[in-house]
Amino acid sequence: MNYELIYILTPKLSEDDAKKKMTTVSKSISDKIDKVAMEDFWGKRELAYPVKKFTDGYYVVLQFTAESEKIGKIEKELRLTEDVIRFLIVKKDSLAKSKDEIKAPTVLSAAEKAERAKAKETKETAEKDAKESKKESKSKKAKAKISDLDDKLDDILEKGIDD
Where are the alpha helices (DSSP H) in 33-109? Predict the structure, then answer.
């Protein structure tokens, strides 16, 4: 069966140490794997949510073939590896022929994040202004109607007193 393993190494490591640890992890599970199709180091990335109190980590992806009975042993090996903070093994229909076929998640730069935040803030401000102007126009209409009613009431009362 074809599998893909993605694991995250602790950010306490330097990038060189993380690459060494990647090699160590590969060697430790190599006896359980029939063939390694591809291994790629994605580098340090921000996590979507904190994992074991870490907000970032070094991502590594590994595609391999192995017997399904050995996956449990690989998972156990990864759980016992201290520097692996999270991992996921999924079954694949086919393996990648090159590293380019596996897409690393896009990481936004600080400038792109700031630009998106500014655009979101501008949109929210525009929506807020639109709501306020809508409320104002409604209140103006209501005031105009009340003043018309007051005038008509005054006319009626004046006519009633004179008759």
Answer: 71-80
